[in-house]
Amino acid sequence: MKKLLYLSLVLPLFLFSCKSIPEAHFHTDTVTPEVGKDVFFTNDSHNASRFKWDFGDGIISNDENPVHYYSGTGPFEVTLTAISKSGLEDQAKLSLNVVIPTLLEIEVREYYQEYVVPDASVILYSSITDWDAQTNKISEGLADAGGIVVFSNLDPYVYYVDVWEKTHDNYTLRNEDVGFVRTPEILPNQINRFIAWVDIANHGKGTRNLLIKKFERKSTNKRQPGADEGTEGWQELYAKSIHKKK
After folding, report:
1. How would you write the chain as a 3-class SS string?
2. In this structure, what are the phi and psi dihedrals at residue 130, rounded to the nearest 5 degrees?
3. Shared domain check, 167 and 140
4. What is the pLDDT along the chain (246 residues), one digit of tens a residue?
5. In the beta sheet, which residues pair with residue 26?
6. How many domains does the chain have?
7. What does pTM read for this prediction?
8. Domain end call among 65, 98, 131
């Protein structure tokens, strides 16, 4: 009889205490986010009324389902502490690897003497058909004093590069070999580089007058730097880049 009475008193307390123990769980929309892009954290915890997030970069949040972005690259360990009403705690951890944005640096140079061409309009298209028709542009930028324009947030595809400057363009080169205006496939989370070769051209703004072809030119005869697996200097490039709208 005493044993039954003891069990009747202890069992409810045991069950109640089990229900009160918090269990911390969470997941994210990605484990390899890009710098500057929002990471969405979904809280899957049980038996918790308060939460503490440590994103591993010095930032803390008490939101239930926070959104956070990282300003630097590298591995970060995210820790979620789930706290019950009675003050009990449980933790869950997840490692993220923050990577650089996808970048495309285009350098505009004259074909023969290879000098840089500043202040050139550079437009990206997703197909040669759109390039020819000048429709459905993906992004557009203006080359700086060093003949450089940088694009970011690009998808990993091939792009077709239209270059126009008041005394230069790449329209004749396109007709000789489409490879002059076609980038290699863009590699994600790397610094991709492409030289847009142009000719001296006498034209009015917006026209595509062709120069007389003197000899056959092939894009394979000109060097292309390609993608850079290193990340040195990405911050400067990203800061001055043209961000493609999603």
Report:
1. CHHHHHHHHHHHHHHHHHHHCCECCEEECCCCCECCCCEEEEECCECCCEEEEECCCCCEECCCCCEECCCCCEEEEEEEEEECCCCCEEEEEEEEEEECCCEEEEEEEECCCCCECCCCEEEEECCHHHHHHCCCCCEEEECCCCCEEEEECCCCCCCEEEEEECCEECHHHHHHCHHHCECCCCCCCCEEEEEEEEEECCCCCCCCCCCCCCCCCCHHHCCCCEEECCCCCHHHHHHCCEECCC
2. -65, -35
3. yes
4. 444 444 444 444 444 455 689 999 999 999 999 998 999 999 999 999 999 999 999 999 999 999 999 999 999 999 999 999 999 999 999 999 999 999 999 999 999 999 999 999 999 999 999 999 999 999 999 999 999 999 998 999 999 999 999 999 999 999 999 999 999 999 999 999 999 999 999 765 444 544 445 567 999 988 899 888 778 899 999 999 998 776
5. 43
6. 2
7. 0.79
8. 98
* Cα distance between residue 209 and residue 168, in whole Å: 11
CA–CA gap between residue 23 and residue 40 (Å, rounded): 20
193 plus 160 within the same structural domain: yes
Select from 140, 217, 204 the least CA-distant residue to 172.
Answer: 217
Q: Are both 65 and 93 inside the same structural domain?
A: yes
